[in-house]
Amino acid sequence: MKKLSLVLPFIIICPALYAGGTDTLSAKRESAVGIVESDGLRFLRGAGYIFSAPARWSGGDWMTLGVAGIGTAAMSTLDIDGRIFMQGRQTPGRSDLANAAQQYGSGLNMIALSAGGYVAGLAFDERWLRETSFLAGSAILMAGTVSTVTKIVVGRARPYMNRGHMTFRPFSFPVENFASFPSGHTIVAFAFSGVLAERIRNTWASIGLYGIAAACGISRMYTDEHWVSDVVFGAIISVSISHSLVSWFESGGDSPCGSGLRILPGPQSITLVWTF
Questions:
Q1: Cβ(63)–Cβ(275) under 8 Å?
Q2: Number of domains observed in the structure of the chain
Q3: What does the buried/exposed string (b/e) look like for 15-35 if buried means 16 or more CB atoms within 10 Å of the residue's CB?
Q4: Is 103 exposed, middle or buried (0-12, 13-18, 19+ CB in 10 A)?
Q5: Residue 7: inside a domain, yes or no?
Q6: 156: domain range?
Q7: In contact, 224 and 86? CB cutoff 8 Å
Q8: For 98-107, what is each residue's pLDDT tens digit?
Q9: pTM, full prediction
């Protein structure tokens, strides 16, 4: 972090310096506004890139998706046994730990943390912190969108409903009791950890970050909110999105000239443009 100088005594003593400082602050405000506007457009371009990804997939990408689907289906065979295992180990102490671990997957908490990091990076001119916080918040929002849509379309009954792991009621409203697949908390946790792991690039940091995210996912099974397969699929989707977003950003894909779907906001309209 850059050292901050105490300039207040000089401002009081020298009016000329105070006037110059005012101009500097004004320039910084204008610069900050420009950065925020630029990041807003970058978020829209990133969303366009992520959500239009299937249109650019090759055979290998579709194969990866198939493997993920098969893997999730295989994990569903552990849903019943996994629930029995978790419910048979309930203690007050473990419940407290589970409740604490779930906070890492709270969308509100992690968006607030990302926003705080972004503001701090902006205020102290720490570009890495600002960009990383921006990417973390973006990944959470994008992965969360995928999670919400999937929950509604699939309509899987939560474990506590006691209807079995193969009960589905698509487009059921209210959604809550039939919103088991995938685990939203797991998606948020792995989106945040995934971005930080990609940006820090340290083995031990990655182990710690993914370990915390995994603890969040396990806590959702412990509290009888999700099946094993809900958590596994949520982790796969979230890590894929966070990895793709960071790779796109660091490769310069945030340039308006990049290929893919572009979302261009205008004064009174929004234009979608596909660039080849």
A1: no
A2: 1
A3: eeeeeeeeeeeeeeeeeeeeb
A4: middle
A5: no
A6: 64-275
A7: yes
A8: 999 999 999 9
A9: 0.81
